[in-house]
Amino acid sequence: MSAPRDQHFLVDRRAVEKIASFVDVSGRRVLEIGPGEGVLTRALLDRGATVVAVEIDPALVEELEVAFADEIAEGHLVIVPGDARKADLPPFDIVVANLPYSASSKITFRLLEIGFEVAVLMYQKEFAQRMIAPPGTPNVGRLSVMVQTYASVKPLLDLSPSSFRPKPQVRSWVVRVTPHEPPYPIMDRKTYADVVRVLFSHRRKTVRKGLRSGKDSFPPETIERTVAGLPDDLLQRRPEDLTLEEFALIANLMSGCPGNE
């Protein structure tokens, strides 16, 4: 079977066994995104998981329904046809998934918003490296800040292109993502996300100029009150040099300003 565009089937059996064993899934509801031909699905079921599998490709959905007819009938597997970025998802405890490269960011943000106990996720290596990039390093960006605010990320496995069919052009990383409360108080999570997005949309500008470029996201008077309340040395830096605490400071000032909706 040929893989749909942007989908690379994991064919390395040893890697499949490792991924399915990184967390104890016995008796748990496990969300799997992009089950493909069901190799990882089978490994999770064999370990006692109840699997919720979200698959966007209708042809693969049909094949999965045939291959796992018994497990579906017994209630051990639920197949959700659709796009994991927006499909309605049944309740789940844990996530184990080989994410499609092009949707990695949106799916990751959505999962963090929904909440889960722990996730074992496969990403393009460069993407995963950005997730763990600390402030002040070249790879830091919106993804780094948002993920590190709400979760810890630990690399578990490095996979070569030969582990997949068809072979991707890049290496892949499997990581463990464990949600946690933000390390610093955040008054409003949407405002925080908007501040991070606006600043990194203008990452070559100083914080002062970046905030003032965000008039489509915040009222001008709110921006000016926030700028007036921030230390000058912070305003002169660029977003890649800010700590999580400083992003929280900016967002909390923005949240607390009169006129900010």
From TrEMBL:
Main location: cytoplasm
Keyword annotations: Cytoplasm, Methyltransferase, RNA-binding, rRNA processing, S-adenosyl-L-methionine, Transferase
Subcellular location: Cytoplasm
Record: residues binding S-adenosyl-L-methionine: H8, L10, G34, E55, D83, N98
Domain Ribosomal RNA adenine methylase transferase N-terminal, residue spans: 15-181
One function term, GO molecular function aspect: RNA binding
Known EC number: 2.1.1.-
InterPro entries, A to Z: KsgA/Erm, rRNA_Ade_diMease-like_C, rRNA_Ade_Mease_Trfase_CS, rRNA_Ade_methylase_Trfase_N, rRNA_adenine_dimethylase, SAM-dependent_MTases_sf
Gene3D superfamilies xref list: Ribosomal RNA adenine dimethylase-like, domain 2 (1.10.8.100), Vaccinia Virus protein VP39 (3.40.50.150)
Protein's UniProt keywords contain NAD: no
Keyword Glycosyltransferase part of the UniProt annotation: no
Residues of the signal peptide: none
This protein's GO CC annotations: cytoplasm
PROSITE patterns with a match to the protein in the record: RRNA_A_DIMETH, SAM_RNA_A_N6_MT
Highest taxon above the source species: Archaea
Transmembrane segments: none
Pfam family, one: RrnaAD
Family statement drawn from the similarity comment of this UniProt entry: Belongs to the class I-like SAM-binding methyltransferase superfamily. rRNA adenine N(6)-methyltransferase family. RsmA subfamily.
Function: Specifically dimethylates two adjacent adenosines in the loop of a conserved hairpin near the 3'-end of 16S rRNA in the 30S particle. May play a critical role in biogenesis of 30S subunits.
Official protein name in the record: Probable ribosomal RNA small subunit methyltransferase A
Organism: Methanoculleus palmolei
Gene responsible for this protein: rsmA
